[in-house]
TrEMBL record:
A Gene Ontology molecular function term of the record: 2',3'-cyclic-nucleotide 3'-phosphodiesterase activity
Keyword Zinc-finger: no
Name of protein: RNA 2',3'-cyclic phosphodiesterase
Protein family according to the UniProt entry: Belongs to the 2H phosphoesterase superfamily. ThpR family.
NCBIfam families membership: 2_5_ligase
Short sequence motif HXTX 2: positions: 121-124
Organism: Parasphingopyxis lamellibrachiae
Length: 177
């Protein structure tokens, strides 16, 4: 089985900006440089033939390069408990168009549609019950912004889960244009 998702890797300068935020929360599991990405679509576990079909079909996704930027921070929770901190993204229309095109490709392959609301973000920390307070972090970084950066490709990524966290490996890169 192959655990796949489609993502955009921000450029080095943006990843450095995010890495500089990662401190002052006890027991937060901060993401490493190679884990920073913006998920366009989580696919999940699929057999090799479907993984190959997905890799081929994603090549049909045609869009022009566009710009996005960091925009604020937020958190996710489940069952009233915080699970993650994230950096938000500005310039959502182009991202939504790209995601809609991908959804069409996935529907044609017979994959279940993703019914969750699309909230473009880059996860910067995983949290658990022993995580310290996040109020100061949120207040200090609420106005997070970046210079716009060009998105000119996306990647199909395979995720390998282990005791030390997830490891990601790009399976294929899809340039725009």
């Amino acid at each position: 089985m192959h655990r796949l998702f489609v993502a955009i890797r921000p450029p080095h300068a943006i990843r450095e900006q995010l890495l500089d935020l990662m401190h002052d929360i006890a027991a937060a599991r901060w993401q490493s440089d190679d884990q920073l990405h913006l998920t366009l679509r989580f696919i999940g576990s699929v057999e090799r033939p479907m993984a190959e079909d997905i890799a081929t079909a994603l090549g049909q996704t045609r869009v022009q390069p566009f710009e996005i930027a960091l925009n604020g921070v937020g958190s996710f929770e489940k069952g009233g408990k915080l699970t993650a901190l994230w950096a938000g993204i500005r310039a959502l229309d182009d991202l939504k168009r790209l995601r809609d095109k991908m959804e069409s490709v996935f529907r044609a392959l017979g994959l279940e549609p993703d019914h969750r609301a699309f909230l473009p973000h880059i996860t910067i920390a995983r949290l658990n019950g022993s995580t310290g307070p996040i109020g100061n972090f949120m207040q200090d970084n609420l106005g997070l912004t970046s210079e716009p950066f060009v998105v000119d490709h996306f990647d199909l990524i395979e995720s390998f889960l282990g005791p030390a966290g997830a490891r990601y490996e790009s399976v294929a890169r899809y340039p725009f244009g």
